[in-house]
Amino acid sequence: MRLKNILIVVKDIEKSKQFYHDLFGLELVLDNDGNMILTEGLVLQDEKIWKDFLGKEIIPQNNSCELYFEERNIEAFVEKLEKLYPSVNYANRLMTHSWGQKVVRFYDPDGNLIEVGTPA
C-alpha cells in the first residue's frame, strides 16, 4: 500500500489552484467538478462537497497538520510570497532552527498550514 494523495478543503477552488501554482508551481492534473488533483499529489476539494460528505463543519487554522515543502533559496521564496500575497497570515516568519534549517510557516487562503524549509 502507498499514500496516493493529500486532500485539503478550500472555499474557492480556482483561487486555491492559483495560489498553489503561483507559489509552488503546482499544475492541474485533473479537474473533476469540485475536486482538483494538482501535481505532487495535492488534491483541492470544494468545501461544500466535503461538508456534505462528512456532515461536519470545517475548522480553518486548526493547526493539526501542515503541508511541507522544501526550497534551497528560501529568502527568494519569502520575497515572492510577500510580493504575490502581501496579506498572508504567518504562523511564524522566516526563522532558523537550532540545527540550522531555515523555515517559514503560513496559512493558505483557507487556513491550511504550510511550512517551507531549507533541505535538512
Tell me the total number of β-strands: 8
Largest beta sheet: strand ordering: 1-4-3-2
Structural class: alpha/beta
In CATH terms, what is the fold-level topology of the largest domain? 2,3-Dihydroxybiphenyl 1,2-Dioxygenase, domain 1
CATH class term of the largest domain: Alpha Beta
Mean pLDDT, as a whole number?
96
Count of separate DSSP helical elements: 3
Order of helices and strands: EHEEEHEHEEE
Any idea how many domains?
Answer: 2
Determine the strand fraction and express it as a percent band. 35-45%
The largest β sheet comes out as: 4 strands, mixed
Q: Could you please describe the fold and organization of this structure?
A:
- By secondary structure, the chain is α/β, with parallel strands linked by helices.
- The chain has 2 domains: 1-58, 2,3-Dihydroxybiphenyl 1,2-Dioxygenase, domain 1 (Roll); 61-120, 2,3-Dihydroxybiphenyl 1,2-Dioxygenase, domain 1.
- The chain has 3 helices and 8 strands; from the N terminus they run E-H-E-E-E-H-E-H-E-E-E.
- The chain has helices at 13-24, 47-54, 74-84; strands spanning 6-10, 28-31, 35-38, 42-46, 66-70, 89-96, 102-107, 113-117.
- It has a 4-stranded mixed β-sheet with strand order 1-4-3-2. The protein has a 4-stranded mixed β-sheet with strand order 5-8-7-6, with helices on one face.
- A hairpin with a 3-residue loop joins strand 2 and strand 3.
- The mean pLDDT is 96.
- It holds the Pfam family Glyoxalase_2.
- InterPro entries: Glyas_Bleomycin-R_OHBP_Dase (IPR029068), Glyoxalase-like_dom (IPR025870), VOC_core (IPR037523).
